[in-house]
Amino acid sequence: MISFSAPGKIHLLGEHAVVYGKPAVLAAIDLRVHVKISPSRHADLNKESDSLKKIIEPIVKKELKIKKIPPYDLKILSEIPVGSGLGSSAAVSSAYIAAILSFLNVKWNLELVNNLAYEAEKVFHGNPSGADNFVVVYGGVVWFHKQTEPVKLSSQIKQFMLIDSGKPVESTKEMVEKVRIKLQESRIEVQKIFDDQERLVKELVVALKDGNQNQLISIIRQGEKNLESLGVVGRKAQNIIRLVEKTGGVAKISGAGGVKSGSGMLLCYHPHPKTLLSFTKTHYLPTLSIALGEKGLLLCR
Ligand code: MEV
Fold first, then answer.
1. Mean pLDDT, to the nearest integer, of 51-66?
2. Is 196 a catalytic residue?
3. For the whole model, what pTM was predicted?
């Protein structure tokens, strides 16, 4: 049996703008997906993984210039909530691609898995930046920019919390498209938002390195406001975020967002985590504690 795991991710800042060549800071988190492949005599009839196979297998076959993959059983166990901004598609694709390559005895490396996972992300999301697949494959806290080599960052601040604002009804693809249309209609306004996110992302790198909590809170607050102006944060999430801010903390969406219903997992930080926890209990909000900067793709023995 061959087994790989990959982490989920959060965007500390820069989501959406990163699609248009602006920088983003992302981190691998301590929620993982585990993918196991074992040789089988018959084709796997597991319907659940069928749609995933239909996306991943052609990408691997094209890369290796092969027509067939011998039958195998595929098992996927995930701790990463699906469609909530935590990079579940990138994580599952990366772990699955690495598992198939090993199953086929192909000499693989992280670069190959990352490139193929990016191809899968194109099928899932249409026009991805490549940031999600990069951070789940390589792990850590990452400065990502489409045109330059990504850089691993150091962060003194690692403990964050997620608050579930509800699963978005829109897909990442739809949210990226929504921003594309807004950019077409209000180019100057959106470009201004992107420029401001770039400034904040640069400041964030310093705040993380120095462990400057006040700076981090101020940056995330401004960054979230920009995401709201971009039109990717729904009412429900905005209400939760304003309440978190009133307690002295900060919160933002962690990926593409959503407007019709939930906006996915909110990344929250509070100088006094107990205050945040008691706030979420009073409001019956589901939470998860997460650590940032976790390991990327791993072969499990
Ligand atoms: C989705 O996790 C992040 C987006 O910036 C899309 C992308 O980077 O491909 C919205």
1. 96
2. no
3. 0.96
